[in-house]
């Protein structure tokens, strides 16, 4: 019929740091990099181009890499890739047998104890969509050992040795101990209550906690930290969606990104979606009003389709003080230099 059909997708990736990816090792078997904070390992959520895998392929011609392990998007440090399936399988077996030694460093609030501290509290995933965990007896077993390196009167630099690899394990255990990471965008928020989750004291249901976390980030215009867009706030999980033509499709349930996580049931996913949806309209109105106080359709200079000017985060907002310092296996050991914020003479101002 000579009809011309065009489908335009208007998508913005959340901002990431401009810090380059430093290649630590590039040999016949492995590629090891020092991953900057705020950069996800592989495409997920709204991230496509701003990922370690994509940048290594485009800028360094390192393609078809096999992911051996993952780091949280906001965690920096040693990240390993295998160049062949055989190498990947060999190291993966070491990971499963817990033969891999992992060493992290972080900066936490308060005076961390001088003696070695071990935390073995089980961790439960509260929400895969928002990316939140907490200590719970129904969670998965895990163990982290902590050693203080320094204290400057306000914050402490702590080395962390996770024996297991649960989602957000180090961050959740530090929160439980009462020493959350200084700039943790999830586990050092007022949404957790007066004690900020110390000792597992939250005094909120999971639904109330999720709503409080979303509202706190929405008020700060920082939903992108949670990797949530306005589209994600729609209650699509557990119900059918119908378009203008009357065609209905089954929604796709958002599944966990971490290998070591467990599935949620449909009713829990539905509640999460409803909680997120409750803030959608107010969030949209707030962003539009602040960007265009006079009601003018002001456009983003970098996007001819946008009518909303989004404020870029500061470099400090794209860094979390948690760094993978060293990974050691049966036949290898890779490490990065200590980050500036972990140095004893670091100026917090």
List the helices and strands and how they pair.
Blueprint: E1 22-26, E2 30-35, H1 52-60, E3 66-67, E4 76-82, H2 85-96, E5 101-109, E6 117-119, E7 123-127, E8 132-135, E9 144-151, E10 155-162, H3 169-177, H4 206-219, E11 241-242, E12 248-249, H5 266-277, H6 280-291, E13 322-328, E14 333-335
Parallel strand pairs: 4-13
Antiparallel strand pairs: 1-2, 2-4, 3-4, 5-10, 5-13, 6-9, 7-8, 9-10, 11-12, 13-14
Helix pairs in contact: 4-5
What does the model show?
Belongs to the pseudouridine synthase RluA family. The active site is at 72. Pseudouridine synthase that catalyzes pseudouridylation of mRNAs. With 349 residues, this protein is of the alpha+beta class. The protein has a domain at 11-97: Pseudouridine synthase (2-Layer Sandwich), CATH 3.30.2350. The chain has helices spanning 52-60, 85-96, 169-177, 206-219, 266-277, 280-291, and strands at 22-26, 30-35, 66-67, 76-82, 101-109, 117-119, 123-127, 132-135, 144-151, 155-162, 241-242, 248-249, 322-328, 333-335. The strands form 3 sheets. Strands 1, 2, 3, 4, 5, 6, 9, 10, 13 and 14 form a 10-stranded mixed sheet that branches. Strands 7-8 form a two-stranded antiparallel ribbon. A two-stranded antiparallel sheet has the order 11-12. The model is unreliable at 235-265 and 279-297 (pLDDT under 50).
